[in-house]
Amino acid sequence: VTEEEVMNKPKVIKNEDGTKFWWLNEFIEEHIRKEVKLLRDNGFNTECSCGHDMYIQCQYSPDASLKILDDLLFNNDYTDYEISTSIKRIDGHLYPSMEVRFGVTKDIKWIKKEVRKQIDKYFGLDERVDK
Q: How far is CA 2 from the centre of its chain?
């Protein structure tokens, strides 16, 4: 299916099963299709999925604790971090978790300095002093 075919398809087409999500059968792998439809039907914006690895990536709105953590860090002058969340359910028990990583990206000066160090090391100029 080409991009042009996708763009020219009518917006509402019913599949054989009566659903109007024509793209579901064409673009979503069969093994994960039921789960993608469940999330989409219930207001979740799915971004990508894989039937082989059995995962779905979705957008979400940060809940109160996540937003409070983000505001706390940002308002205390942290500008380079990543907050990852995880919710696991094992044998019916809920395991929510958050991880904060600092220094996820570096400013351009730091990158230039690191590149210069590597070049100097390669050419045996390790003793050079930056001014």
A: 25
- DSSP character for 16? T
Query: Do you know the residue count of the chain?
Result: 131
How far is Cα 95 from Cα 90, in angstroms, rounded to an integer?
8
* 118 close to 96: Cβ distance less than 8 angstroms: no
- Is pTM beyond 0.90? Reply is no
Say how far apart CA 45 and CA 36 lie, in whole Å: 9
H or E stretch including 48? Answer: strand 46-50
Domain-wise residue ranges, the chain: 3-58, 61-131
Residue-wise pLDDT tens digits, 32-91? 889 998 998 888 888 889 888 888 888 877 788 899 999 999 999 888 888 888 889 999
